[in-house]
Each structure stands twice: as structure tokens, then as C-alpha cells.
Predict the structure.
Amino acid sequence: MSPFNVFEAVGAIRGELRHSNFLAYLLSPNRPHGLGSRALAAFLRRVLDRMEPDERPIMLLELLVAELDDAVVYRERDNIDILIELPSLKLVVAIENKIGASAGDGQLRRYSDKVSQVYPNHKRLFVFLTPDGTSADEEGYIAYGYADMADTLESLVRDELTEHSEAGLVVRHYVEMLRRHVVHDEKLQALAIALYERHKEAFDFIFDARPAATSLVTVVRDSALAVEGLIEDSGSTNLFRFAPEVWDERLTIIKGDPTKWSKTGRGLLFEVKTYNGSPGRVNVSLILGPGDASMRAGVYAEALAQPHLFTGLVKPMGAQWVTIFSRDLQTAQQAKGQSFQVQANSAGLAWSDFQGRSLQPLIDAIIDIDDRLVATASRVAG
């Protein structure tokens, strides 16, 4: 069920930094892994295959005949996860890697602007690497999933030259780890279903007997849903989104795109998050999601004009998502060295303070903003 895997052994399953370090190593032709430029060429070809021919910065034929051994791979240059210079093609490739978090508001735009500024005479390729190939909220980025990465690397392992080498062994371990922990693997899923069907009673008993899982998000979620008028929108292990019921009744202009965010069509959602890289940190934010451009600009401008209320507003406004209010209910520094119960009590008290001081004023302010946007639209129409 769980053969030895070096990446699992060292805890490199969902750590973005470790994934980025390993991938940068493999993609660098001058590293002593024995792959030369084959990993880089295979990766670039798969990315280009996802693009329309007229959108590609270089032709596939150029890639096939190019000498890539002079490529230089950087880690965290200008905060970009992986940056690759290819002098022979006069091409620069920027890879933003996200495992357990989404890109920050305006983050991808800042990176593309920086690359354009530093490499004004180069052709440029931007890649957004995520577990499920999520589309970026910034134009110009090619969505690339870890399943694609696993397939790309697996093709290298099948090469006779690498099959029994040290590099081949490490790449196989990495691919196996990706398929077990990072991406959805249909073969493993089918095996799991077959195993469950064969031992259904035992698995059901174990499932029913498992200890209840509790997280800081769960603590805040329970407090939030105990407040009359707040309803859950969506959530996961480290994320909980909710909205005031009154917004569903009162907001007529502030609506979202149900194909890109909340299926309810809500344009604004409160979001409670914890962070894998910052143990104990709990944050509550108000997020403006994808929707009509003029509506989003109007809401952002109104929030920007009320800094006393919309604290933590992110500048500039993101193309799809933007935070217009943010507050840490607990910082990682505050949580350091504390037991879970102490952390939970602290986060609960901070939620109570947020509820008493900020929640209702924010709810009312959004209704007022929507009313003003409605009035403006009426004047323009008239």
C-alpha cells in the first residue's frame, strides 16, 4: 500500500518551496542529474502544446532544433518561483507554483510586469502550476497541472537511458508521490474503490470510529454559523466562505460570475483561512470575486474611499479577485508555542471582537455601496 518513497520520508509532499527547488533542479540542464536539457525540453513542449499556434512565443520547430544547454534556471528571482532564461531562443519562462494556496491579489500581474521590465527584448512565457491545472486570474498565464508534470517526467523515466539510473529512481519516486498526494489519479482511485468494496464493513467501522477532526477554521466556522443571518457558501480543510443572508436579498448590482467562483452568483464573500506555511495563523477577509468589470471597479473605489472601515485593502485591484478587508484573528507568532486549545480560545475571542466591531458595519457598508451603484446606473440609463 505504501512502498518507501524518499519524498514522503522527508515530508516534501505539499511544501511549495521543496517542489519548486526540485523542479528547478530537474529543469536546469547544467545540474548533475544526467538528464541534460531533456526535462526542460519536454516541459516546454507540453506547455506549448496547450497554446494555440498563433499564441506561442516560439514555434515548436524552434524548440526541437534549439540548443538548450545554455539555459539558466533561477529560484525566487524577483520573488518568482522559477525563472528560466534561454539565450539560444531569446526566451524567458516564468513559473508560479501553487500547491496549497491561491495566488495573491495582483501577484501574477506584478510578476509579468517585472519580467517584461527586466527582459523587454525577450519573448516571454508565463506558466501557472497548480495541482489541478487551475486557470490563473491574470491573462497571459498558461494553466499547467501537476498531472501534466507527472506525465512529462514519467515519459523521461521510460527512456532507456534513465530507467535504471539514480535520476530515474528519484524521478519515479517524485511522480509516485505526486499521484498519491497532489493530483487525482484514476488508477489509484479505482484500486481504492475495489479495496473498499471488498472490505466495506471494516472500512465503515473504522470511519465511524475515527476521532473527530478539529481545526482552527472549524472553530471559527462554528462561531460564525451561530450568528443569526450568516450562511455558509463553501469551504475546505483550511478555508471557510460565508455571506450575510441579507446580501442575497438586498444586493442587485454586486453579483459574481457563477462559472468562475461561487455557484450562487455572489460577488462578495467573507473568507476565513489558515495557512500551511504559518501554523496557527487565522485570517478573515472580505473578497470581491470575478464579475462585471464596471461593478468591480465601483465597489473597489467605494471601499478605497473608506479606509477606516475597509482595512487591509489590497492594491492594486486584481483582475479576478481582490481583498477589500483583511484582519488576522491570530498571527503565527501569537500562536507559537501554544496548545491547540489555547489557540482555539484566542481565535474565538478575536472572532467575537471582529463580530462586535467590524462585521455589521461591513455588511451595512456593502448594502449602501450597492444602493449607490444602482442609483448611478439609473442616472446613466436615464
Remarks:
- The radius of gyration is 24 Å.
